[in-house]
Amino acid sequence: MEFCKDCGGVLNLFGNDKSELCSSCIQHAKPIPVVVPAPQISPPDDTDILLETTLSSENGKITLYSKEGWQLWSGPTEKKTKMADILKSARLIYKIRNRRKAKKQ
């Protein structure tokens, strides 16, 4: 004998039914929300440029250079700067310099 998982009532006497709820609970059941996964947001195309950058410290400044030798960001060693701000600035400068390079060619 099987019992309803919601109300505990008898589902069937012989155990042949595959459902877990009785017909009364099925009629009054709230719809089960369907979870739709959020779309994957791909990173900007220029994220690879950061893997190829060089970070150096010279004359009391920290400087971030691209593989082309462009200075993407610099700041004093004594001042704390959030990494998110550095990366945002570096990406912007890289995009601008890349556009200028493309126009010249």
What does this entry look like structurally?
- With 105 residues, the chain is α+β, with helices and mostly antiparallel strands.
- 31% of the residues lie in helices and 20% in strands.
- The chain is built from 3 helices and 5 strands, in the order E-E-H-H-E-E-E-H.
- The strands form 2 sheets. It has a 3-stranded antiparallel β-sheet with strand order 3-4-5.
- A hairpin with a 6-residue loop joins strand 1 and strand 2.
- The radius of gyration is 31 Å and the shape is rod-shaped.
- The termini are far apart.
- The relative contact order is 0.10.
- The model has no long low-confidence stretch (mean pLDDT 80).
The portion of residues forming beta strands comes to 15-25%
Radius of gyration: 31 Å
Largest sheet: 3 strands, antiparallel
User: Count the strands?
Assistant: 5
Average per-residue pLDDT, rounded, comes to: 80
**What oligomeric state is this?**
single chain
Quote the distance from N terminus to C terminus: 80 Å
SSE class: alpha+beta
- Count of DSSP-assigned helices: 3
Strand order, main sheet: write it out: 3-4-5
How would you describe the shape?
rod-shaped
Q: Which runs of at least 5 residues are low in confidence (pLDDT < 50)?
A: none
Write the H/E string, N to C: EEHHEEEH
Helix content: 25-40%
